[in-house]
């Protein structure tokens, strides 16, 4: 299967030019959206959901930022940076919504910079070190496929703010998934060395798939994407045996604390600083 064929089939159903979506844009996705929590929606549960989705995005964005000046080509450096910015934009909107509905009035900085490691609720796959380019590509493929499938459901959420954030995110995540899929096929079907590294990346990601499938009921969609891409790349499907513990419960690998220390260092050292 060619790269173009993988793109066409994965992008099916999204009429926008998602290939170049780097979707922050200039339009406010929440313009005119009623911020009142609808009757029947539990504010605590809504806030918790927004925080978990924001934590996934923030930690993923921080890992992608590590490729700045390190990507194999300038074009890929720009692409990865823009994908990270998309995720950072999603995190900001989600943290802001959590602060609106959880009764604390906290802003996005409070969630991002002034919580400790055990308070974060991101999935553990997002926090693993970047590794080589193949690992980052495979991780991005898995996380973007998983997040896209969930956001497609959230577009119909009863909270209009979360639904609007999800609608914006769907356009961005469609591109993220496609970018990763094309690179996974290119690497898997490339040289002997790139094939070996991509196969190893799938093996490294596999133990963390169980946590993703537990979090939301999107397993079928994610597995279908992985099967399509691995077949096109001549790679085996990852066989997952879930690891104990869950990032959703605040149980993290030893890699999150140093990542957060780097992310939060300046804000904590100068908490009242402005610019």
From TrEMBL:
<dbReference type="InterPro" id="IPR009078">
    <property type="entry name" value="Ferritin-like_SF"/>
</dbReference>
<dbReference type="InterPro" id="IPR007814">
    <property type="entry name" value="PaaA_PaaC"/>
</dbReference>
<dbReference type="InterPro" id="IPR011882">
    <property type="entry name" value="PaaC"/>
</dbReference>
<dbReference type="GO" id="GO:0010124">
    <property type="term" value="P:phenylacetate catabolic process"/>
</dbReference>
<dbReference type="GO" id="GO:0005829">
    <property type="term" value="C:cytosol"/>
</dbReference>
<protein>
    <submittedName>
        <fullName>Phenylacetic acid degradation protein PaaC</fullName>
    </submittedName>
</protein>
<dbReference type="InterPro" id="IPR012347">
    <property type="entry name" value="Ferritin-like"/>
</dbReference>
<dbReference type="InterPro" id="IPR052703">
    <property type="entry name" value="Aromatic_CoA_ox/epox"/>
</dbReference>
<dbReference type="Pfam" id="PF05138">
    <property type="entry name" value="PaaA_PaaC"/>
</dbReference>
């Amino acid at each position: 299967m060619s790269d173009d064929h993988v793109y066409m089939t994965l992008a099916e159903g999204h009429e926008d030019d998602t290939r170049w979506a780097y979707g922050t844009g200039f339009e406010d996705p929440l313009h005119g959206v009623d911020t009142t929590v609808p009757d029947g929606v539990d504010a605590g549960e809504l806030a918790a959901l927004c925080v978990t989705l924001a934590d996934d995005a923030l930690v993923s964005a921080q890992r992608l930022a590590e490729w700045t000046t390190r990507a194999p080509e300038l074009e890929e450096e720009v692409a990865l940076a823009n994908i990270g910015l998309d995720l950072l934009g999603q995190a900001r909107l989600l943290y802001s919504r959590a602060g609106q509905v959880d009764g604390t009035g906290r802003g996005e900085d409070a969630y991002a910079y002034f919580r400790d490691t055990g308070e974060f609720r991101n999935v553990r796959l997002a926090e693993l070190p970047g590794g080589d380019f193949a690992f980052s590509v495979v991780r991005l493929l898995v996380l973007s496929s998983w997040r896209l499938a969930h956001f497609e459901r959230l577009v119909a959420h009863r909270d209009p703010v979360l639904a609007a954030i999800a609608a914006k995110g769907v356009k961005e995540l469609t591109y993220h998934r496609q970018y990763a899929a094309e690179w996974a096929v290119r690497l898997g079907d490339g040289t002997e060395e790139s094939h070996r590294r991509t196969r190893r990346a799938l093996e490294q990601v596999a133990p963390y798939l169980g946590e993703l499938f537990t979090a939301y009921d999107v397993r079928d969609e994610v597995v279908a994407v992985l099967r399509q891409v691995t077949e096109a790349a001549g790679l085996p499907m990852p066989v997952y045996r879930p690891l104990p513990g869950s990032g959703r419960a605040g149980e993290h690998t030893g890699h999150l604390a140093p990542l957060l220390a780097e992310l939060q260092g300046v804000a904590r050292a100068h908490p009242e600083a402005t610019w």
